[in-house]
From TrEMBL, chain A:
Residues 87-369 form the NADH:quinone oxidoreductase/Mrp antiporter transmembrane domain. InterPro entries: NADH-Q_OxRdtase_suN/2, ND/Mrp_TM. It is an enzyme of class 7 (translocase). Pfam families: Proton_antipo_M (PF00361). Its EC number is 7.1.1.2. It catalyses: a ubiquinone + NADH + 5 H(+)(in) = a ubiquinol + NAD(+) + 4 H(+)(out). The lineage of its organism: Eukaryota, Metazoa, Cnidaria, Anthozoa, Hexacorallia. Keywords: Membrane, Mitochondrion, Transmembrane, Transmembrane helix. The keyword Membrane applies. One of its GO terms (biological process) is ATP synthesis coupled electron transport. This is NADH:ubiquinone reductase (H(+)-translocating). The chain crosses the membrane at residues 12-38, 44-61, 70-87, 122-149, 169-190, 202-221, 227-245, 252-268, 280-303, 315-334, 354-374, 406-430. The keyword Amino-acid biosynthesis does not apply. Coiled coil: none annotated.
Automatic annotation (TrEMBL), chain B:
The lineage of its organism: Eukaryota, Metazoa, Cnidaria, Anthozoa, Hexacorallia. GO terms for molecular function: NADH dehydrogenase (ubiquinone) activity. Its EC number is 7.1.1.2. Core subunit of the mitochondrial membrane respiratory chain NADH dehydrogenase (Complex I) which catalyzes electron transfer from NADH through the respiratory chain, using ubiquinone as an electron acceptor. Essential for the catalytic activity and assembly of complex I. Keywords: Electron transport, Membrane, Mitochondrion, NAD, Respiratory chain, Translocase, Transmembrane, Transmembrane helix, Transport, Ubiquinone. This is NADH-ubiquinone oxidoreductase chain 6. The chain crosses the membrane at residues 5-22, 28-45, 52-73, 93-114, 142-168. It comes from Desmophyllum pertusum. The keyword Endoplasmic reticulum does not apply. It is found in: Mitochondrion membrane.
């Protein structure tokens, strides 16, 4: 609890510094390094959060609002997610989730085009899921008589083994609310619309940071395993079939993130040390790949975010096309890249825990999912420009790559290409994180 | 006991009147009566704080907000859907039934769980740890002493709401120069 005080004081300093906008970048980086030094020996999830937010702060442009309000709000999001990771009772979990959700609503709604609709969708559905969450909390507090997470776990999981607990209704409601935030499949409806409408930098933040926080909350809770499995199967299915017919890049990435959430959740579902480690490695690689693909999309400056705008890029920008192709191959899980490593580890841990049907289903889904990733690579390399697109492309600048974006892409690409050669770093990191839990 | 039954049935009856009143403004007033009835019922159960919250938040803020929205929408020209022939309200029965059964089973299950320990009287204020204090006083001691960090966290949410309101309503970009027409 004293941690809250500490973080709060740092954040207040940050907001006061942020009012002088010329000091902002320095104060941001100073305080983030400060945060990271402080939290490195606590939880690995916080380090992942810091990686995601570093990327977003790195990508922010010279516009006025991106110099003042957006960094402050994204740092408040970091504060909320840190509180979420280190919180031990239902009240602080709720407040931390609400803090980050409200910040995200403001950031999403402040875009152009469909962003008002996207923000409103995010806000209304977030309010609905918060209602479910609070109702579940009330029911669980009625059973357990206390607001602490561990207290309830002692009562319910007292005699049984980990997997044959019959979850009470409150757990199901809370799990539904957390699935809303994670965009896991029965509750995924908001994700494609919000991803499409929101500004791309905010989508990068939305696709990485809150998911890390909520996954660490899911580890901290005693898990009702069977209901997690429903989320796994549905989100693998939806993430595969939903993305097949998409024409916009951000909607496609939304469905792809739903599929990835299914994989990560499967690791949590198995519940053993190896599978938790595997899904943390998956989470790390997912964050890296998301940062890489979004910074490439930001650099390309799409006109309407359509997939066919990438057609024939390899003719005039070969290096860009090769990079994007490598990233999409990695997301699809083609062997020499990091995406294959993560999928392999999760599938291996699933086989070791003897859930063969889900294993076959996951392999089937990722094979089908490979189709639409490879389709993008085909568009990049082998598709001709249509005449309409040529006129559009003639009217604008081609690339918006500056040093920051190239640096970020290069750093992520280093991990994507060479993590398979020496994956010890990621596994060490993940096992250190898991050791704290057990 | 008879007094509390009076308020329970008052709440249910005025709840029925909310959905069957012809004028939306009247149904809103019935809603206010529902809230007042349930607040008095909570007061009789011994939970003063929730009763006061009902009066302050629901009657004071939300009902006024509803009234404002209804005045803005100008719904008085339309007949309510309940009386139209073509409006078939039976569609809503299954989902309403399901939600009602769910809520009722949850409420009754908590009663069954607590039942064996205290059979003589169902008093909501009984299992409180700080029985010697007044209701609101006990809550304040928990909120400002035990949960003071959470209280600060809640203040951060208010700060975000303030920043967000300013950030969303300020102008996005300076408008282009427009021609000013004479007499326009």
């Amino acid at each position: 609890m004293s941690e809250f005080f500490f973080l709060g004081c740092s954040l207040l300093t940050l907001v006061i510094l942020g009012l002088h906008s010329f000091l902002l970048k320095f104060s941001v980086f100073f305080l983030l390094i400060f945060f990271s030094l402080y939290s490195f020996n606590l939880e690995g999830g916080k380090v992942l959060v810091l990686i995601g937010v570093f990327a977003v702060l790195f990508l922010l442009g010279p516009k006025k609002e991106e110099q003042t309000e957006v960094p402050v709000l994204s740092l408040i999001i970091v504060f909320g997610i840190f509180c979420l990771i280190s919180s031990t009772n239902w009240l602080s979990v709720y407040l931390a989730i609400e803090l980050s959700t409200l910040c995200f609503f403001v950031l999403i709604a402040r875009g152009s085009g469909y962003s008002a609709e996207a923000g409103l969708k995010y806000f209304v559905l977030g309010a609905l899921s918060s209602g479910l969450f609070l109702f579940g909390c009330a029911l669980l507090c009625g059973i357990g008589g206390n607001v602490h997470l561990a207290y309830l776990d002692l009562i319910i999981n007292s005699k049984q083994t980990f997997s044959d607990v019959c979850p009470p209704v409150g757990y199901i409601l809370i799990l539904g609310a957390l699935f809303f935030k994670l965009s896991v499949a029965p509750f995924h409806m908001w994700a494609p619309d919000v991803y499409e409408g929101a500004p791309t930098k905010i989508v990068l933040l939305l696709a990485t940071v809150p998911k890390i926080g909520i996954f660490s909350l899911l580890i901290a809770l005693g898990l009702p395993v069977n209901s997690l499995l429903i989320g796994v199967v549905f989100s693998l299915f939806v993430g595969t079939l939903g993305a097949l017919n998409q024409t916009k890049i951000k909607r496609l990435l939304a469905y792809s993130s739903i599929g990835h959430m299914g994989f990560i959740l499967w690791g949590f579902e198995s519940g053993s040390f190896e599978s938790l480690q595997a899904s943390l490695v998956y989470l790390f690689i997912y964050v890296i790949m998301t940062i890489c693909v979004f910074s490439l999309i930001l650099g390309f400056h799409l006109y309407k975010n359509l997939l066919i705008e990438f057609s024939g890029v390899s003719r005039f920008l070969p290096l860009f096309a090769v990079t994007l192709g490598v990233v999409f191959f990695s997301i699809a899980g083609i062997p020499p890249f990091a995406g294959f490593l993560s999928k392999w580890v999760v599938l291996l841990s699933g086989v070791l825990s003897q859930s063969y049907f889900v294993f076959l289903f996951a392999v089937f889904c990722s094979v089908i999912g490979g189709v639409y990733y490879v389709r993008i690579v085909k568009i990049l390399f082998f598709q001709k420009n249509s005449y309409l697109l040529i006129t559009i492309k003639a009217l604008r600048k081609e690339l918006h790559l500056n040093f920051k974006k190239v640096f970020l892409v290069g750093l992520c690409l280093y991990f994507i290409l060479f993590l398979f050669v020496a994956p010890h770093l990621g596994f060490f990191f993940a096992s250190q994180t898991i050791m704290i839990l057990f | 006991m008879g007094v509390s039954f009076f308020f329970i049935f008052g709440a249910i009856g005025s709840g029925i009147m909310v959905i069957s009143a012809l004028n939306p403004v009247f149904s809103l007033f019935w809603l206010v009566i529902v809230f007042i009835n349930s607040a008095v019922f909570f007061l009789l159960l011994g939970v003063d704080f929730i009763a006061l919250m009902f009066l302050l938040v629901y009657v004071g803020a939300i009902a006024v907000l509803f009234l404002f929205v209804i005045m803005l929408l100008n719904l008085t020209d339309y007949p309510p859907a309940f009386f139209k022939r073509e409006a078939d309200m039976t569609n809503y029965i299954p989902i309403g039934f399901l939600i009602g059964v769910f809520f009722f089973s949850e409420a009754s299950s908590s009663w069954f769980v607590l039942g064996p320990f205290q059979k003589e009287n169902w008093d909501l204020s009984f299992p409180w740890l700080i029985i010697s204090h007044h209701n609101i006083e006990a809550l304040g001691q928990v909120l400002y002493v035990v949960c003071c960090c959470l209280f600060i966290l809640a203040s951060f949410i208010l700060l975000v709401a303030m920043i967000g309101a300013i950030f969303l309503t300020q102008d996005k970009a300076p408008l282009g120069k427009t021609q000013q027409l004479l007499g326009g």
